[in-house]
Amino acid sequence: MPELQPPKWAQRFLRWYCREDYLDEIEGDLFELYSIRVAASSRKANLFFVWNVFRSFRWINLKKTQLSNNWTMNMFKNYSKIYFRRFRKETVHYAVNILGLSLGLSILFFILMFVYDEQNIDSFHSKKDRIYRVVNEVQEEEGLNHYLSGPNPLAKALKTDFPSVEETSWLTYFGSHVLAKDDIRIADRDWAIVNRGMFDILDIDILEGNPVKQTEGDAGIVITEEVAMKLFGRTDVVGEVVDGSRFGTIEVVAIMDDMPRNSSYQFKELYVLNPDQMAEGWQNFLNDWDTQFMQTWVLLKEGTTPEDVYASKDQFIEKYIAEENKGKYDFYLHPLTEVHLGSTHIKNGGPAPLLSIPYSDREFVSMILIMGMLVIFIAALNYVNLSSVQALKRTLEASMRKINGATNKHLFGQLFFETFLTVILSYVLALLLIVVLFPFFLQIANKDFGISLLFSADFIFYHVISILIIWTISALLPALYYSQLKRSLLVMKNAFSGKGDLLRKGLVGIQYALSIFLIIGSLVIYRQLNYVQSKDLGFNNKNMIVLDINSGAARGNFKNIVEGIKNNPNVINASTSSRVPGEWKDIPIANVSKNLTDDAMEFSHYAADKYWLDTYDIKLLDGENFTGADQSDSLYILINEEAVKALNLEQPIGESVWVMSNSDSVKMRIKGVVENFHFESLYEAIGPVLITHWNNHIRSIDYFTIKYAQNPKETIAHIEEVNATFDPNTPAEINFLDQQWERFYEAEESRSTIILIASIVSIIISAFGLFGLINFTVERKTKEIGIRKVMGANVQNITTLILKDYLILLIISLVIAAPVSWWLFGDWLADFAYRINMSVDLFVIAFVLVLIISFTTVLARIYKIAKANPVQSIRYE
Amino acid sequence: MEYQLGEFEELVLLTVAAQHNEAYGVSIHEFLTEETKKKINISAIHVALKRLEKKGFVDSRFGGITEERGGRRKKYYIVTALGKKVLDASHDLRTSIYQRIPSLQFAKI
Fold first, then answer.
1. Which residues form the Transcription regulator PadR N-terminal domain (chain B) (predicted)?
2. Distance set, CA A708 to CA A87, A455, A566, A568 (Å)
3. Is residue A827 packed enough to be buried (19+ CB in 10 Å), middle (13-18) or exposed (0-12)?
4. Do A35 and B68 make contact, defined as CB atoms within 8 angstroms?
5. pTM score
6. What burial class does residue A534 get, using C-beta atoms within 10 Å of its C-beta: 0-12 exposed, 13-18 middle, 19+ buried?
7. What is the mean pLDDT of chain A?
8. Shortest CA distance from A56: residue in chain B
9. What's the topology of domain B7-99?
10. How far lies A181's CA from each of A129, A206, A226, A240, in Å?
11. What is the pLDDT of residues A693-736, one digit of tens each?
């Protein structure tokens, strides 16, 4: 009978890991135990043997690998010892290195977090790869435009006609709404209208109830706990009813959780529509292919792509789109993951729900990412410079090591090890900095996420990669220097060769060119935004309050309301209009032409009363304002200068033009010409504007604007009081006009601040580097300076001696950086319709700034050596 | 003199002393499992022996090759003078404290 053996693999494993000198005892004992047990049951004995092999897998039993053998360990011990000794001796040098690297690293990590968050907006939806918005391409006079609002029945038709479409839903917003329970009323803007399908498309967390429940009436509503608390004072309100200004009395079908912070939309109320139960007027509206109002969202089936939809798109458009629009209308599917960063081409406006996180664009995200990399690159260059200089100072050490048998490879490894220590120290310091500065970062970046992101699994990868890259970049050159030092130099104690001086200066030059480039960039961005915000808009947006008209009662009583509001010492003026300049809503278009047979031109249209121009301080250049006589005013219009140009009128006053609405065209007479005013973002040029009297055939009024002198709080109380007198059922929706206007620029402001801070840090890092280098130069020239002083040189001569080279270097960097930034940032500015000029003083400021920051850091050091007693400096060494 | 001696280490050391000159991994394992009626893993004994050896409480020598050991030698352990002293000290300490227990009558459990 062959002898039974324990499992071979376990034996092999044991022999693989176990120390040779312990093997006799351990393997022997395990075998012996096995042979005792094998008589009873070989299977159990086998298991027991394997178990014991694993239990013996302990640290003290392990074979010591090469890394932990004594030789290598001693080497690393020695390297670290030397490193920390040098650290103590050359504290300035190491401190500068570590500070520079840690500043660079923290900026890099902040930027990475920012970018990560930007790219993960809306990424929490579990079906995100299958969710699309329909973007409608419409061929218009001025070109191809992309709109979110498309034909109303699109959602329904997409689902029935395309087998690859799993679910569709509207996502629409009508302006303001009011929800009421008894005498509690709330009006907020974070609401939307959806179909039941939306709950299959987006991840909307339902806490209680059933959002897709069939309800009576036009719609059911899903609300958040916060809204429920406000309306009912409790959250178990599923099945209760609320009164809504939009769809009458509606049932609360479910309570939803707040959307995650990185959601583009923070819905507080979702109306779930019952399109089939709505009144005929609604039905007609919702089923009309010519009305392009609703935004449509689509969920594709698993395994299908938009291409499957596009394959039969032509037949679909042929089937539904009216004859006259064929060829002008097209649509495509815009992925959810593109919503935040890829929506800049979509034309603003339409009844889209309000974004809680404004769109950003990919260009900016890559810009800031490049910026972060530049900053860390500058920091790495610092390290390279300072350490290669240090390497030169370590001739003696290098030679001793070589004589004792170290090869170039060993010396190379030593510097890599030292760099690793520096990088790790900087990394730890950077993490500390990040933790301390995190709240400020959130504020500046206008973001809201936890610091845990930095340590999340996704992010640890970035940590490792950044450390590895910085380590390699930083270590390579100094290590080469250090290991290639000539052994013959040993004979000269601390001999110093000027080797690599040119390269070093080249690196400093690159560093400074990058810093100047970054500073010019942030100056341009900063100035442009400042310009935009302080530019004379052509109207007044300070001390203005906007009151939305949300009901027929307010609209009907508008004259009384205007007069009522005016009747207060705080109020300077009040007026009503269809839109307000700088509002988030799109400015509607009216078609205007000189002759009925001409092609119509598109004018932005405002309807206003006679107080409107005064309230907004819009200048009347020619002609007259409305008189206030409802009937006669209704046939007069005001236009802006652009409109005069567009209509090509010599003498506009008294001329007549045709103003068209959907149903009819009316000939109207030009009564006055107003100065151009910026009614949209300054990205866009001012177009022609048509101002009709409130009593016109196209559009009704929607807003009151109140200009106040002081005391906004009292003014608001007064407005609320007046509003309640004439419209007791709708709460006043009040906003400050400049706040609305700032929405346009809020996101950009936070971006420009990030860029500004990053570039300031980059100068500081460069200044650190310069400080380290000059520190070294000064040390090297101590004796020379002493001798010069003895010969009669004064402080000034000596300062010039040291700084001259660097000044030349700075000038060279400016020459390199200037044209590049001129070209790049000029290109960026070209996107703005109204922009600052790239002027020479930008370059002067950037240069002087770098000069001052760098030289003040080093001046103290130079001054000290220049003032020192020459006897001491000559005795040096 | 202070000696660090863990509870399990003490048991192993006692066994080594008791099985004078004949103690090795398996014998100690058998003995302790028998005496304590607990499951003890052999690797724990190996670790304890290594520690005791490092502290100088036991000495070791290699024995002959036997067949049931798969051609491996036995590693015998023997208590050193120092080890014996530590055991004595530990024993004395325990005894002296034990003797201070007043003779009480405990109720039968």
1. 13-88
2. 65, 50, 9, 10
3. exposed
4. yes
5. 0.70
6. exposed
7. 83
8. B43
9. Arc Repressor Mutant, subunit A (1.10.10)
10. 39, 22, 14, 10
11. 888 877 788 889 999 988 888 888 888 888 888 887 766 777 77
